[in-house]
Every structure is written in structure tokens, then in C-alpha cells.
Amino acid sequence: MSADARIEAITARIVERSKPFREPYLDRVRAAVSKGVHRSVLGCGNLAHGFAVCSPAEKTALAGDRVPNLGIITSYNDMLSAHQPFETYPALIRQAAHEAGGVAQVAGGVPAMCDGVTQGQPGMELSLFSRDLIAMAAGVGLSHNMFDAIVYLGVCDKIVPGLTIAALTFGHLPAVFIPAGPMTSGLPNDEKARVRQLFAEGKVGRDELLDAESKSYHGPGTCTFYGTANSNQMLMEIMGFHMPGASFVNPGTPLRDALTKEASKRALAITAQGNEFTPAGEMIDERSIVNGVVGLHATGGSTNHTMHLIAMARAAGIVLTWQDISELSDIVPLLARVYPNGLADVNHFHAAGGMGFLIKELLKAGYLHDDVRTVYGQGLHAYTIEPRLGGDGNVHREPAPHVSHDPKVLASIEHPFQHTGGLKMLSGNLGKAVIKTSAVKPERHVIEAPAKVFHDQAELNAAFKAGELEGDFIAVVRFQGPKANGMPELHKLTTVLGILQDRGQTVALLTDGRMSGASGKVPAAIHVTPEAIDGGPIARIRDGDLIRLDAVGGTIDVLVEAAAFAARTPATADLSANEFGMGRELFASFRAIAGPADQGASVLFA
């Protein structure tokens, strides 16, 4: 089935807008491809360094360019649950490459930090910028010019977007992303959130809180709620970078290992030495990007991707805007209820039919472009499957179920949870912002209340503990943008504002910072741009100003007479405490040149 006419129109607009960037990008990709297998351009000394530790047989093969060499870019470390499984992957990939008649080498590692560890801590101010640093680090690994294709091992928040930027920068090379999968289900996410609220209210102690957190985050794999990490996996599959069905298989299982080996062999099969050459820069086009946005809306995915997708697209010469994302949100229905948008976790989503069922339903109604290239071949229809481990130890695929195994978690296209996507773009006299609506009750989609202004989340939490947050209000937390302090997540606000809302107060959040996929039941207008440090309108808000947040109409306004508001002197903040400690001094140049949120908050494409 062809795509819905509205989807086609938005895609065509992106194509036209992107031409000044996309066409030169493709020219560069094709020029790099035309040079052939790249080891042939290396001098003997260069090549000797490149394969010094290989076996004699591998050296002979690589010296003559007779076999493909598979590069591995890995985000492995053994502290973080999501990346610990990658420890064993290089051995599996080398084995698979040998079986396929190729060679595999670890080309380089990239940093992988965890927003869960750094929430509310100074290190969180490095988080967003780590995306661009990861792309740069991968570029260093690939600069040796030794490889015919690349497999990327990454899962979490900034890692996959950073690796995607790298894959598209080296777009002349085929790229396959290999995930680790989610940890098995532990303490339900809603129970964890309940204990957090009790702790914030002083009703349970630290021991009880740590016990609940440890039972929720308890083993290898990604966290099981639907935040940025699992939104990443959905994106890589629906955009065609994963093998079909690879996203949500648990680590340490025979099927997970079989998928890893299969992906490695497939990467070797799509090099220029074979008959299915699939350079990443040619494979990913405007249709692939639109498919990613559609998947984000249909699943109620992370708000971080309103920035990441823009930066990822830009790496391929594609200009995606918040307006495109917003218009797609008005078209695409919400088909998934995964915490914080529901009670289920990603393992329940996978069991209900997972990506195969989701893609099948979206294709059925024309919400996706089927006529795309993927690492698996031509057409997204090939992804409407469920993976199984065959008796031969290899991956086998069955058609996705005709009906959801759990309609409370994964809905059909005929009976969606809501008729619009889970994200909404806002604009008004305060600038532009993003709101995640999929977890917010409809009666809270329009909020009009006076402002209470803070310059960091610690100020708001202190006001809560002092009993100063009474009545209805919209919390304005500013000087949290990319240039101010690296745009940290403000996750510690979730619990406090949730408590106040549960007490019957009407509350909302307005910030130039981030809330990520953890944005929950409280209305939160985030990523406000222009940010406060640039003198954006958010810097002129005062305590008591009436603010109207309308997630139905897509507006965010301060209800102050225009001339009087414009005449105000923007507030300033002492940000010196954010400039040093925990590595923040190393990122001063990044803060200075970071682009605005609606352009990807990037230092690479500013």
C-alpha cells in the first residue's frame, strides 16, 4: 500500500527543503564509494599497523582486499546495565564474520553514560553533548579507513543518536545496528514511582527506596520503561537499521546471540564486494526519517527525539523541523501504552506483538513508507514479523499476529488509544516548546495558571520541602538550555509535581530544559526555545504572570500585555557553579556554540 497522501505531502516538503544539503551529501557519499575498497589506498606501513594483531590468514586476506573487513564500533562498559551485554559481542561477531568468509575488528569504542546514574547530579550536564562527542569518537575509530561495513553496538539515550550521526557521516559504508535488548521485567514501574513519591513525602526511608529501585533496575539490558533508550530501539528497527524483530529480545538468550550473528553476516553481505551493496547514506532518505517520526508518535516515544531526529537527519543532509514533527503528530494515532504512558513495560509490548504488529498496523493504514531500503533489503513489509529461534540455532521469522495479544498494551489501527500522536509541538509568545501528551489525562491538556519561577530544579524541590508550593501554578524552570548548562534532564521534578497534582492542585511545567521519556502525567512544556540565556521570552516571565498551556491548540503563551512584556529586562542567572566539576569545564566550548533545541541542540550542525 502507498503512503497516506498527508504523509506523502509532508515527505515531499522535506525532500524539497533538503535539496541544498541532501544533493551535496549524496555527491560526497558516491565519491567515497567510487574509490572502491579502501584498504587498497593504504601504504604498506599503514596496512601493517592496521592488521598487526590479525592471524596470518587474516593478514593475507586483508592485504589483497579479497575479503570484506567488518568494523565494530562499541559502547561497551561493564558498569551500565544496557551496555554490559556487549562484552561478549565482538567474539560472536568475529565468529560470524569467519563463517561468512570475512574478518571483523573492533574499530573503536565510544563513551556511554547513563542518565539514570547522573539524574540530578553535575554529570547530567554532559549528557546531551555526549551525543555529538560519541559521533566524533566513532569518527576517530573509522578514520583508519580499514573497513567495508560497520556494525554499531549501542542502546541508550545519546549513544544511538550519536552512532547514527557517525553512520551517516560515513554514509559510503553499510551500517547495521546491533542492540542488546531490555532487561527482564522487575518491580513494576508504577510501583517504583509510588515508592518514590512516598520517599519524597517522608513516608518511607532511603532503605525502602533503594530496595524498590534495585528491584526495578536489576540486571543486564535497558531499563524497561519506554524512555529514550527503548525509543532508540524502536527507531532503529522502523528506520531499517536493525534486522527485523531485533529490538526487544532480552540479553543473554540464544535468540539474542543468533540475531547478533545474523546481523554481522548481513553487514558483510551488503558491502560493495557483494550483490546487495547498501551504503547507509543512500539507504536512509527522507522517507526513512518520516517513518522514524511516525513510529515515535505511534508509540508515545521520548521527547528527546524531537532533537535527536533533527540532528540525525541533518547528518544525512535532510532538514527535518518541529513543524514536520507536529503535523505528523496530528495525523498518526497512538497505538502503544508502555510506561510512563501506561502500566506495561517494553517486555509486555514485545509479548503483545511488538514491532512486527506495530509496523503491520501502520503500513495497513498507509502511515509508513513501505518503499524504503533497509539493511534487510527492499521494503518495510519484511519487518512485519516475529523472530523465533529455529532448531538449527538460526533466526526464523513468522508473520506478526493478526490481532494484538494484549489490546491494553498494543492497539489495532482501527481502535487506537488516541487518534493523534503522543507528542505535540507548542508555539506562542513564549517561543516554541514540546509536550508529551500520551501520559497526560485529557482534562489536563489545557492549563491556565500563574507562574512560579525557579532557576534550577533544586530551588523548586527546596520550595516543596518548605511547603511553599500551594495552589495552582505553572512552574517555570529556566536557564536549563544547551548554552546555559548543557540542557540536563530535570527528572527530579517529576515526583514533586506528581505529588502536588495527586493532592488536587492544577500544576504544569514550563522549561528550556529536558524531561526525556520519563515525562509523565504532569503537563510539561519542555525544550523551550529561544532559551533563557539567549534572552528568550522565558527570561522575562515573573512570578504571578498568568500562563496558558494549550496542548490541544498547540500554543504556549504568557497572558501579559504585549508591549509591557516586551519592555521587561530579561532575567539573568549566575551559572558559574555549572562551569566546573565533574568534567563540565571540558565542555565549555560545546556550550558556547550549541544550536537551539528546535535545530537539534547540536555542536556539529549549529
Description:
Keywords: 4Fe-4S, Carbohydrate metabolism, Gluconate utilization, Iron, Iron-sulfur, Lyase, Metal-binding. Its cofactor is [4Fe-4S] cluster. GO terms for molecular function: phosphogluconate dehydratase activity. Belongs to the IlvD/Edd family. This is Phosphogluconate dehydratase. The chain has 22 helices and 16 strands. The mean pLDDT is 94. The chain is α/β, with parallel strands linked by helices and 606 residues long. A hairpin with a 2-residue loop joins strand 5 and strand 6. The strands form 4 sheets. The chain has an 8-stranded mixed sheet with strand order 9-10-14-13-12-11-15-16. It has a 4-stranded parallel sheet with strand order 2-1-3-4, sandwiched between helices. A two-stranded antiparallel ribbon has the order 5-6. The chain is 38% helix and 14% strand. The radius of gyration is 24 Å and the shape is globular.
In short:
The protein has helices at 5-34, 44-50, 56-63, 89-99, 115-118, 127-142, 159-169, 189-200, 206-216, 228-238, 254-269, 280-283, 286-299, 305-315, 322-331, 346-352, 354-364, 457-465, 482-485, 492-502, 562-567, 588-593, and strands spanning 69-74, 103-109, 149-153, 175-178, 373-374, 377-378, 385-389, 395-399, 423-428, 431-436, 446-454, 473-477, 507-511, 524-529, 546-550, 555-558.
